[in-house]
Amino acid sequence: MVASTTVVIGSAQGLHARPASLLTQSVAKSGAKVLLRAGDGAEANASSLLSVLTLGAKQGDSVEVLVDGEDEDILLDQLCELLARDHDA
Amino acid sequence: MSAALAELILPGSIALEVTADTKAAALEELVGLLDAGRPLADRALFTEAVLAREALSTTGLGEGIAIPHGKSDGIAAPAIAFARSSRGIDWGSPDGTPAHLLFLIGVPEAAAGDEHLVILAKLARTLMRDEFRQRLLDAATVEDVLTILGEIAS
Fold it and tell me: Does the pTM of the predicted model rise above 0.80?
């Protein structure tokens, strides 16, 4: 099953290395396949820090999160909360 | 829009091989490289920012890459130092790979909020390519490294 939703990046300085690594750690722990898709269509593998950083997503940018795995709705909620939080606050 | 990435890397800030074999020593060496390229406004202050950031979570990205960084008044303008470690340095990367390609990014505290993010994204897009990483690892001279890094699109 695939669950997806769109979330707005909350960190003041965007999806930089620290918030991105929190995301990739959660994804790695879950074992699910997670894809991020930016507004310009660029996609990133959410289990790869390098890949997530290529998006250069800024605060206020919308990013679609697609989760493929077990308990995808729960994981999706967790990941969206991570992305929406301001880790620079 | 910010400057092309290669313009941020001065020849004096490139080392083909670090002498360090620990992360702490490598960070000191990278700060020294930035300072050699263009003297830092306050080396101690800048070093403190880099170490504080590293303490929050590792800047090892996996794929043999580490991108430590510091945002601080200890540096007057954005700059990048680049160094290689052929034996690799344990950087606590998520994929467990030792770091062979080291980029230290320095930006002033007053830099635009997204300056650092833009630099990171540009670097990451290019470093995703296996072939690009291999060429950086294989480059024989500082000039070759500069030429390869110069291909990173602005």
Answer: yes
